[in-house]
UniProtKB/TrEMBL annotation:
Organism domain of life: Bacteria
Pfam family, one: APH
InterPro entries in alphabetical order: Aminoglycoside_PTrfase, Kinase-like_dom_sf, Pseudomonas-type_ThrB
Name of the protein described by the UniProt record: Aminoglycoside phosphotransferase domain-containing protein
Length: 331
């Protein structure tokens, strides 16, 4: 009897054989990275290069992936640069692979070429325009089949996953609960007036490239779903702030350029504007919950009390900056 496995890395050569059985030829598969899912580059297919995403066990359902696929197709049809699912010759758009830990879903996506976005207002504006076009393209897309990016998904469930990891840190756990309750109350007070949208869910520079024509190409919609336009926009600002020095003004300049470009193409309500800061906090809480989810396969050392302390400290700096910005705004 083999030892139970939580998460395997599938052999690229075996994956190449599986793809050859469908497409013919001699495709070459290279393992690129382990993240939420496993990503491989595939070369030598009749359709050109591709990205193969092998989902973590029980991470997504076929219905979840079908929603993502439908959203991407809508976006591409509307002229948004978005890496699409590549169908297999028999029309299949999703595989099930018999991994040691259990059946894992897999899908092929367009391979995107281009440069990484620069930390400039020009590239920030590209994100704002892309987000506006993406949200417009997703209007009318049914929610059914996909998990919603609601306040339970962003705040309630993540905090519930983190708290058991803080059983020996009652002060830290209490601080987390206070922040979560405050943020949820603020967003619930605005929720009825917030603009709903089909969201990318992870809208930052790690999931986009600028092609040779200067157009932004988006990929990795895996964390997207029906949610709030302001959340997508908050993720862009959150990512820059999280990955910059606390006294660096660049993230805020970039976020402002992104928001200005979005507003020029698509209106934001007063509630959307008021919710941006709180959605940045919600994103941090979601991020903490994500790491708690991954601790079984990435290791508990990654989710030590020190990690959660750093995230709560970031929330404090984020809220201080927003308060200072509002205080300095003209009447």
């Amino acid at each position: 009897m083999s030892f139970p496995i939580l998460s395997s890395v599938l052999d690229p050569a075996a994956l190449a054989g599986r793809l050859a059985a469908s497409f013919g030829g001699a495709p070459r598969v290279t393992f690129l990275r382990r993240g939420l899912n496993d990503t491989y580059r595939v070369d030598g297919l009749p359709v050109g290069s591709a990205a193969l995403r092998v989902y973590r066990l029980r991470w997504r359902t076929p219905a979840d992936v079908a929603w993502e696929d439908a959203f991407i197709r809508r976006a591409a049809a509307a002229g948004v640069g978005a890496a699409q699912v590549i169908p297999f010759p028999d029309g299949t758009r999703l595989l099930t692979l018999d991994a040691p830990e259990g059946p894992r879903l897999a899908a092929l996506f367009d391979w995107v070429e281009g440069r990484e976005p620069d930390a400039t207002p020009e590239d920030a504006a590209r994100f704002g325009r892309a987000a506006a076009a993406l949200h417009a393209a997703g209007e009318g897309l049914p929610d059914a089949g996909r998990f919603p990016l609601d306040l339970t998904h962003l705040i309630g469930s993540p905090v519930a996953r983190v708290l058991p990891l803080l059983a020996d840190e009652p002060a830290l756990a209490h601080e987390l609960q206070v922040v979560a309750a405050r943020t949820r109350a603020a967003l619930e007070g605005l929720e009825a007036q917030l603009t709903r949208a089909a969201c990318h869910g992870d809208l930052h520079g790690g999931n986009a490239l600028v092609d040779s024509a200067g157009a932004l190409q988006l990929f990795d919609f895996d964390c997207g779903g029906p949610g709030f336009a302001a959340y997508d926009l908050a993720v862009y600002g959150w990512d820059h702030a999280l990955n910059s020095a606390p006294d660096d003004d660049t993230p805020w300049t970039l976020w402002a350029a992104c928001l200005d470009a979005y507003r020029a193409a698509r209106p934001l309500t007063d509630a959307d504007e008021a919710a941006l800061g709180s959605f940045g906090v919600a994103r941090t809480l979601w991020f903490m919950g994500l790491y708690a989810d991954l601790s079984d396969t990435w290791g508990r050392q990654m989710v030590s009390p020190r990690f959660f302390r750093s995230q709560l400290d970031f929330i404090g700096r984020w809220e201080e900056r927003l308060t200072a910005t509002r205080a300095g705004a003209p009447e």
